[in-house]
Amino acid sequence: MTSADKKLPQKSSKAAIDAFLEKVSSTPVTKSAGERGRLIFAMDATASREPTWDRACHIQGEMFKETAALGGLDIQLCYYRGFGEFKASQWLSSSDELLKRITSVSCRGGYTQIEKVLHHAIKQTKQKKVQALVFVGDCMEEDVDQVCQLAGELGMLGVPAFLFHEGAEPVAQRAFKQIARLTGGAYCSFDATSAGQLRDLLRAVAVYAAGGQSALQDFSKDRSEVVRKLTRQLGKD
Fold this sequence. Notes:
alpha/beta; Rossmann fold; six-stranded mixed β-sheet; 9 helices; about 15% strand; globular
């Protein structure tokens, strides 16, 4: 690690969290009245994430429990690992089924496959509109120009990508921020000390994708300050 790398923040600053929430609050949810929202949830399941995998899976599985009462969110779980292994579930409407699927995934060594995640999201939304892509990962080992080309295509289709970066690896940080910018989404980093904040932010994105502003307002009443701040920002629109 270089001295420059050591200066990178190990978790999101207040300004970074504020910027993330501001971006979520200004991202429109496009769906017809009465239509269920669709959200792709993609995970990096390579070996580098193994030390924090169990805790991260628990947080990630819980994020959709808040949307069950809305009756408005279908989730597709995607992950990559090993030697070119990329898998996507069918669309799920049960948070319990999603949690079961997430916790059954284990880490395997291999290179990142973010390009496949973006290809998949493009294909899915061309078949039927996807409201958002959420990605959780820690590194990026692919051609950044090719990945950004696909991110631009996804952005043209109106699918924002919300990227949650575990750690602060500088190549991934730059790439993830570019993907977020090109899709009209947002970037946020986290570490083991910010689990509660990550949980709230993930839940907020899921609730907003499912039900928009009114659903997020209801969700925020007894939640953390970061979620209440998001709701106040939405109220200003």
